[in-house]
Amino acid sequence: MSSDATAPFTDCPIPIADAKEILMGHGSGGKLTARLVEELILPAFRNRFLEPLDDQALLPVGGGRVAFTTDSYVVTPLFFPGGDIGELAVNGTVNDLAVGGARPLFLSLAFILEEGLPLAELERVIASVRRAAEAADVLVVTGDTKVVNRGKGDKLFVNTAGIGVPLPGASLSSRRVAPGDAVLLSGPIGDHGVAILSQREGIAFGGDVRSDTAPLHRLIAAVLEAFPDVHAMRDPTRGGVAATLVEIASRARVGVEVDERAIPVRDAVRGACELLGLDPLLVANEGKVVAFVPEEGAARALDAMRSDPLGREAARIGTVTGEHRGMVTLRTPIGGRRILDLPFGEALPRIC
Amino acid sequence: MSSDATAPFTDCPIPIADAKEILMGHGSGGKLTARLVEELILPAFRNRFLEPLDDQALLPVGGGRVAFTTDSYVVTPLFFPGGDIGELAVNGTVNDLAVGGARPLFLSLAFILEEGLPLAELERVIASVRRAAEAADVLVVTGDTKVVNRGKGDKLFVNTAGIGVPLPGASLSSRRVAPGDAVLLSGPIGDHGVAILSQREGIAFGGDVRSDTAPLHRLIAAVLEAFPDVHAMRDPTRGGVAATLVEIASRARVGVEVDERAIPVRDAVRGACELLGLDPLLVANEGKVVAFVPEEGAARALDAMRSDPLGREAARIGTVTGEHRGMVTLRTPIGGRRILDLPFGEALPRIC
């Protein structure tokens, strides 16, 4: 078994590798997504800005540098405990800029509406976008609205693209991650995915599980101020912390060793995951960051995370190594070790 | 009857004004679209960058200025005579930057794919995006791919956002349009809409009607080089030339007088429109520009248009006046006059 998200599908038990059409798993953040992107999309557009494959591109524009990113949001249901698609669309794009070391400034906002969508729901989403943009201190400056026939969409999809400026001194890229780096996580995982699932399936889990959707740029700026030479950051959304770690291990050609006991998971989330047969490491987050920090800055970076209201439960969860390059190794609570691998698809489609 | 796209819907014969849900007409580029945008979306986000309501925002970023725009594309069918959704998504966003006087540089590319989409169709669209980006000399630098369940989308939707830099000396905005300006049109209208309709309905019209989708930034740069003080430009897409003129009349509070005989329309398009009961002025274009030029520069600007391969059939179609402000007046071929008004919706949904 390989943990390389782009490995050939020789170990696939079902003939998914030869799929001739789009499967739900192509959108899951797992191996099928990686394969689609790396085999079909990237080869068409190879250029030096796209090549780093970070969550945002850093572009030379008019003498300065501009960070640029885009995401579409197709989450269902539109409204869920702790947030909605509008808030997600702002925070997700803000976070994609922030994890690249940029200060988010401006967003575009493009709706694809299904005929029959109650205007009240659209109004609610717009109000939520406004509140989230204000909270994240970004401006919505351009937009678009399209309508598709009933049955040809699903109420409301939204795309936000974002523009930011690089924070001075920051140089974040998966390619900089190196053996010896500490792996920091800003808080408990799995809340977003479990909140969506509980809403979708009408299951109330013990305790109040709410999406963690939040703008991370202030926490990230604080970390970079405390220790500017952070090597890379990622927000572990689709595919969860597992997808983030596997992607970094693969792209930076390093090993990542993680201590499963060190990973914060709320009891209610852990219970829900056990009930549903999900690994919290694979469940999406919308307000967490994973940081790869040289050892000498790890303590300062972790302190900075913990000083932010969104990072109070931050923890060091592992270390980057020069062994088992391309792989993520998990030390389990009972002292064993397992290779952390990604599923082809995942159990939670349309989570963001 | 009012020609103001934002007028209250007091003249509406059906109770569409009180719609409590999204109608196809909300995406048409007609009055319902204007109402949705101006009553629901804009009030939520008022800021000085959004306020000019041009097709792109001009933003201060890192000491320089950056032009920023977004559009989603939901055209059906995906492939049509003269183009496809991929080419449209590049050219449309390139053109939105260009009509603001910016040089297009970078695009984002975000797909929403329906489960079951043949991979071959996605590959074809991606290849088309690549070719169009190369032809327009822009780079795709960031992207996203989401998948929705079968029956919750329609094969493939795509969003492109674009970044550009303002051309030196250009200052284009609907607010600058003033009485005395000449109204120039870069070529024959209606080709795109009729091409889509012929493909969709399986009707072959006399002659080969193909979409006019094309990147206009070189033509526009040539016009601005010939006469930098052009007041405003627009690409007349959804809602056609009529929507463009009505929007400018409304936003700039000017009258626009147009000579219907001066408007170039290909015979096959005119024939198709007569057959279908469509007004070519209301049919979408994807490779045309309308320019509002001070009289002293009109001849030079028109010559520059005609020197570009995409503008060989450019024509002066009218004049901006200080009379009938907010209205577009059409001189008809038989010497009469009529007020050019927009429909609430239009006969051609999902044209782009």
UniProtKB/TrEMBL annotation, chains A, B:
Domain PurM-like C-terminal: residue ranges: 179-329
Pfam families referenced in this protein's UniProt entry, alphabetically: AIRS, AIRS_C
Gene3D superfamilies xref list: PurM-like C-terminal domain, PurM-like, N-terminal domain
Domain (PurM-like N-terminal) ranges: 54-165
Coiled coil stretches, renumbered: none
InterPro entries the record matches: HypE, PurM-like_C_dom, PurM-like_C_sf, PurM-like_N, PurM-like_N_sf
Family: Belongs to the HypE family.
Protein name, per record: Hydrogenase expression/formation protein HypE
Native organism taxonomy: Bacteria, Pseudomonadati, Myxococcota, Myxococcia, Myxococcales
Gene name of this polypeptide: hypE
